[in-house]
Amino acid sequence: MLKKIKADLHIHSCLSPCSDWDMSPKKIVQKSLEQQLDLIAICDHNTAENVAAIMREGARQGIAVLPGMEICSREEVHLVTLFKSIEADLKMQEFIYKHLNGNNQPEVFGHQVVADEHDQVLGENPRLLIGATGLSLIDVVEKAHHLGGICISSHVDRPSYSLIGQLGFIPENLHLDAVEVSFRVPLKKARTEVPGIGNYPCVTSSDAHFLDDIGKVWTEFILAAPSLEELIMALAGKDGRHIVN
Questions:
Q1: How far apart are CA 7 and CA 70, in angstroms?
Q2: Dist CA 79 CA 88 (whole Å)
Q3: d(CA 10, CA 79)
Q4: Helix or strand or coil: residue 221?
Q5: Contacts 24+ apart (CB under 8 A), 54-59
């Protein structure tokens, strides 16, 4: 049976150096429930070390959590990758870490807190998560697909760290599954206001780095269940699954 699913598919945790400590596993789930979200995705910068904890807390409190990551390519373009399982997400993380150089400077870029589902601090990630990887856009998309995931171009309406902002266009050989617009552009107007995205499924997400931003915008889907398999069908418009707004 198909139903409407309210989803925010781009949320950062306290592991992202530009996020607040309040973006802890327990608080993210609690705020998502307050916002009446059915499905969220955790997409920290170049890492997935907090995803499993948030998935466990989401399962405990009754909200679906997709494992993901926001990856910065060597072109300094941000891409959201989403996966069916935490195992696939961690394989992507292993691949990313091999192509991510530098060490974090907390006093400059912010702390990168690893936490469990009880909001207990387990440590800090020492890598320069805010940096660009040595991977091309095509490298990232192809690896995500190889692991059974999907790849969405982040906040394409923004001038910085977006595909259109950095390159000015979407390469024809870049096989994206969708594009994301920020809260700055209403989803219904995105195709007419953002050049070059007309041929792609379009979603909107909060890109939340602070609790009050979770669910600031969202995408409604018609799905049978809040899962990546169903999401893939909706992006393709298959078997009645589709994007509502």
A1: 17
A2: 16
A3: 10
A4: strand
A5: 54/13, 54/25, 54/28, 54/29, 54/117, 55/86, 56/25, 56/117, 57/25, 57/26, 57/28, 57/29, 57/117, 58/29, 58/32
**DSSP conformation class of 180:** E
Query: Rounded distance, CA 43 to CA 41, Å?
Result: 6
Cα separation, 196 vs 87, whole angstroms:
34
pLDDT tens for the chain, residues 1 to 245: 999 999 999 999 999 999 988 999 999 999 999 999 999 999 999 999 999 999 999 999 999 999 999 999 999 999 999 999 999 999 999 999 999 999 999 999 999 999 999 999 999 999 999 999 999 999 999 999 999 999 999 999 999 999 999 999 999 999 999 999 999 999 889 988 998 998 899 999 999 999 999 999 999 999 999 999 999 999 999 999 999 97
Give the containing element (helix H, strand E) for 6: strand 3-11
What's the distance, CA 61 to chain centroid? 21
Question: Does the domain at residues 3-243 carry the CATH identifier 3.20.20.140?
Answer: yes
Q: Name the residue ranges covered by the structural domains of the chain.
A: 3-243
- Mapped to the 3 state alphabet, what secondary structure does 81-143 carry? EECCCHHHHHHHHHHHHCCCCCECCHHHHCCCEEECCCCCEEEECCECCCCCCCCCHHHHHHH
Which tokens is 197 given?
């995205």
| Distance in Å from the first CA to the final CA of the chain | 20
